[in-house]
């Protein structure tokens, strides 16, 4: 079960690895997006219904969310799968798992992507331990937080390293889109949720408009996903500079290779940008009341995982009241104007790929091996 595009990518890679390891003797049902469906998932309903974030953004959709939780739990109990894997999105996956655990304890429950108990709500470790049989962690320092609470946890690495973010073809992209050598490409990533796009795209537009007098050859490349593509395309129609809308990982990664800088919503894409060695500015804004609640709970200094892992502000983060066009333009302009500033970011993320699990065994295969071992040790006897 995945609830947003980043989870869909994780799920698709896990499914592909599981199929390879089992010689194709596996079947998938659940909830996922286009990537999981392409790997053979039969999705119970469109994943886009779950792509929500923030307390007040969620409230209007709560009745449908509750209905989908009940529907999913009932389907799991009917099918009796060999394992249930929830991928992040705890507002949905945790609630489904809780219902399944109460009704049928024999079904193995696994969660993929550890909740950030090191950042906020440390008591969640015990909550997960009471429900799940195993946790798959994407960061190397996470397992002890959960093992202390009695939940077995395996570090498998972050499958973003498998996505090809650092292997794009910039020359191909420039040739395909008629970009001249003098054109300076900035990749603009406003997020994959409707709320993110609505909040961030106007400020991103105003940011680039401020930079145009100094950089008249600026070209914005905007990667998007199916769930928000039409919304993004409509917003780009009146942008004051040339824009190129792309969809799909191949074009996105080629755009990374063709670009000098990126302006991005906070999220998994920040790791992709680090792997691509593309200097970036990270921005985000939520409903002010939602933020006021979160700020009382947050225990870390940064939101960008690159900065968290390095324990310093390497990649500029402009959040909430700091997320405004003048500040964003200053930060992005510095990267455009100063080659040394760009190189400092490139050099600073050199260790991040290793920490995320790059190596001989892909993270998705490590995760699949853990899942298959658990299934073999914990057969669903009913």
From TrEMBL:
Keywords: Glycosyltransferase, Lipid A biosynthesis, Lipid biosynthesis, Lipid metabolism, Transferase. One of its GO terms (molecular function) is phospholipid binding. GO terms for cellular component: membrane. It catalyses: a lipid X + a UDP-2-N,3-O-bis[(3R)-3-hydroxyacyl]-alpha-D-glucosamine = a lipid A disaccharide + UDP + H(+). InterPro entries: Glyco_trans_19. Pathway: Bacterial outer membrane biogenesis; LPS lipid A biosynthesis. GO terms for biological process: lipid A biosynthetic process. It comes from the Bacteria. Its EC number is 2.4.1.182. PANTHER family: LIPID-A-DISACCHARIDE SYNTHASE, LIPID-A-DISACCHARIDE SYNTHASE, MITOCHONDRIAL-RELATED. Belongs to the LpxB family. Condensation of UDP-2,3-diacylglucosamine and 2,3-diacylglucosamine-1-phosphate to form lipid A disaccharide, a precursor of lipid A, a phosphorylated glycolipid that anchors the lipopolysaccharide to the outer membrane of the cell. This is Lipid-A-disaccharide synthase. It comes from Azospirillum griseum.
């Amino acid at each position: 079960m995945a609830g947003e595009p980043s989870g869909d990518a994780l799920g698709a890679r896990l499914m592909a690895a599981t199929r390879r390891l089992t010689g194709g003797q596996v079947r998938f049902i659940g909830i996922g997006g286009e990537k999981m469906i392409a790997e053979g998932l039969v999705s119970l309903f469109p994943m886009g219904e779950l792509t929500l974030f923030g307390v007040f953004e969620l409230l209007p959709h709560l009745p449908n969310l509750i209905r989908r939780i009940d529907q999913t739990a009932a389907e799991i109990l009917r099918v009796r799968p060999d394992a249930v894997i929830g991928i992040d999105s705890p507002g949905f996956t945790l609630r489904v798992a809780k219902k399944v655990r109460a009704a049928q304890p024999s079904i193995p429950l696994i969660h993929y992507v550890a909740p950030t108990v090191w950042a906020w709500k440390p008591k969640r470790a015990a909550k997960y331990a009471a429900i799940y049989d195993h946790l798959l962690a994407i960061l190397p320092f996470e397992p002890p937080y959960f093992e202390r609470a009695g939940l077995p946890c395996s570090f498998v690495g972050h499958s973003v390293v498998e996505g090809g973010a650092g292997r794009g073809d910039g020359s191909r992209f420039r040739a395909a889109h008629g970009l001249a050598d003098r054109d300076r490409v900035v990749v603009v990533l406003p997020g994959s949720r409707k709320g993110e796009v609505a909040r961030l795209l106007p400020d991103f537009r105003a940011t680039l408009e401020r930079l145009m007098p100094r950089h008249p050859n600026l070209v914005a490349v905007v990667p998007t996903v199916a769930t928000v593509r039409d919304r993004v395309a409509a917003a780009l129609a009146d942008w004051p500079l040339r824009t190129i809308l792309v969809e799909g990982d191949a074009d996105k990664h080629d755009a990374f290779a063709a670009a000098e800088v990126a302006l991005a919503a906070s999220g998994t894409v920040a790791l992709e940008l680090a792997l691509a060695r593309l200097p970036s500015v990270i921005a985000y804004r939520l409903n002010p009341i939602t933020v006021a609640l979160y700020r009382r709970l947050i225990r870390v200094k940064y939101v960008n995982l690159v900065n968290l892992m390095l324990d310093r502000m390497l990649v500029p983060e402009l959040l909430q009241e700091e997320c405004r066009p003048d500040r964003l333009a200053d930060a992005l302009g510095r990267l455009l104007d100063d080659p040394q500033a760009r190189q400092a970011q490139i050099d600073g993320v050199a260790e991040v790929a290793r920490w995320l699990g790059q190596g001989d065994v892909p993270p998705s295969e490590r995760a699949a091996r853990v899942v298959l071992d658990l299934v073999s040790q914990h057969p669903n006897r009913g």
